[in-house]
Write a structure and sequence with these properties.
Largest sheet: none
Shape: rod-shaped
Bound molecules: heme C
Order of helices and strands: HHHH
Radius of gyration: 25 Å
CATH architecture: Orthogonal Bundle
CATH class: Mainly Alpha
Helix content: over 70%
Length: 104
C-alpha cells in the first residue's frame, strides 16, 4: 500500500512544477523584450546627445516637434551640415526623433 502513495506524491510534485513553469513563462518572455527596447532607446538617446548637440543645444529638437517625414528631411539636412550620423543609424534615429518629438 505504500507504493501508490509515493507515486501519487511524485505525480503531484511533477504537476506543480509544470504549473509553476507554465505560470512563469509569460513573464520570463516579456521581461527581456522590454529590456531590449529600453536598451535600444538608451543607445539612441546617447546617439542624439553626441550627434545633435555639437552646433546647437538639444533644446532645438524639443522646440521643433514635427512629423516623421519632416524629421527625415531635418536629419538629412543636418547630415549635409556635418552631423556625425552614419546611413545605417539614420532610420532608427528618425524613428526615435519622431516618437519623442512628434507633433503634439
Ligand atoms: C554641423 C552642425 C550641426 C549638427 C551636428 C546638427 N545640426 Fe541641427 N542645425 C544646424 C544649423 C546650422 C541649424 C540652423 C540652420 C538651418 O536650419 O539650416 C540647425 C537647426 C536645427 C533644427 C531647427 C529647425 C530646422 O529645421 O532648421 C533642428 C530641429 C535640428 N537642427 C536638429 C538636429 C538634429 C536632430 C541633429 C542630429 C542628427 C542636428 N540638428 C545636428 C547645424 C547642426
Amino acid at each position: 500500500m505504500k507504493q501508490p502513495a509515493i507515486v501519487l506524491l511524485f505525480l503531484a510534485i511533477v504537476l506543480s512544477l509544470l504549473v509553476a513553469l507554465f505560470d512563469r513563462h509569460p513573464t520570463s518572455q516579456s521581461a527581456p523584450a522590454t529590456a531590449a527596447i529600453s536598451a535600444e532607446d538608451a543607445q539612441l538617446t546617447q546617439l542624439v546627445q553626441s550627434s545633435c548637440s555639437g552646433c546647437h543645444s538639444l533644446a532645438t529638437l524639443a522646440q521643433n516637434r514635427q512629423s516623421r517625414a519632416r524629421w527625415q528631411q531635418t536629419v538629412e539636412r543636418m547630415i549635409q551640415l556635418g552631423a556625425p550620423v552614419s546611413p545605417d543609424q539614420e532610420p532608427a534615429l528618425v524613428d526615435y526623433l519622431s516618437s519623442h518629438f512628434g507633433p503634439q
